[in-house]
Every structure is written in structure tokens, then in C-alpha cells.
Design goal:
By secondary structure, the chain is α+β, with helices and mostly antiparallel strands. The protein has a single domain, classed as Dimeric alpha+beta barrel (Alpha-Beta Plaits, 2-Layer Sandwich), CATH 3.30.70. It is built from 4 helices and 4 strands, in the order βααββαβα. It has a 4-stranded antiparallel β-sheet. A hairpin with a 6-residue loop joins strand 2 and strand 3. The longest helix has 13 residues.
Length: 110
């Protein structure tokens, strides 16, 4: 499974609606991820640049991209970002692949 970080900010209208009728948002969030083949592992509210975040597992990038499109098009979010996450094993494999390439990349002008 591939891991993804979803970070989001709500619109002012969405926040007003949540304040008028407070509800736990974990269950609806988990449903949208599951509807696209994912599993929500963590869901947190945040203070600062983002209002919240979720970490999820997906079989591939298509499901994660579909969630982003579905949720972003709802109008409830001012910002919704999806970031692929790599395990340490994946990073080590990438480093090994890079090392084996022997510096085959040549920067412009050289």
C-alpha cells in the first residue's frame, strides 16, 4: 500500500456550518477515502496554515487523486493538497537506484 498525506483548509462558510452544528468529522472523512479504495489511518485537526490532515493508505495513486478531485470539487475546502509519503525502505531503495545510476544526469551548461 502507498501512503498519502492529505492537508486541508476549510472555507469560512464550512467553518460557520461546523460551529453551528458540531460533529465528529472522522467518520465522513473515512467514508470518502474508503469509497475510493483507501483506508484512513490518522485524522488530525491542526492550528496554523492548515485546518487538518489525514494519513491514508491506497493501493495506487488513482484512488488518492480521485479523493482529491472529489473533495476539492465540493466547495467546502479553500485548499486541499495530496502528498505521497515514502517509507524508509522506499527511500533507501530510491537512494540505491540513484547511486547505481552513477551520476548519469548532466546539468544544463555542462
Amino acid at each position: 500500500m502507498a501512503h498519502y498525506l492529505f492537508r486541508f483548509t476549510f472555507t469560512a462558510e464550512t467553518v460557520k456550518a461546523m460551529l453551528a452544528n458540531p460533529k465528529d468529522r472522522r467518520e465522513p472523512a473515512g467514508r470518502i477515502f474508503a469509497a475510493h479504495g483507501g483506508k484512513m489511518l490518522h485524522y488530525f485537526w491542526m492550528m496554523g496554515e492548515y485546518d487538518g490532515m489525514a494519513i491514508c493508505d491506497f493501493a495506487d495513486a488513482k484512488g488518492a487523486a480521485a479523493v482529491s478531485m472529489t473533495v476539492a470539487s465540493s466547495g467546502a475546502f479553500g485548499r486541499f493538497e495530496t502528498t505521497p509519503l515514502l517509507t524508509m525502505e522506499e527511500v533507501l531503495a530510491a537512494m540505491e537506484l540513484s547511486r547505481k545510476s552513477g551520476g548519469s544526469y548532466v546539468p544544463p551548461g555542462r
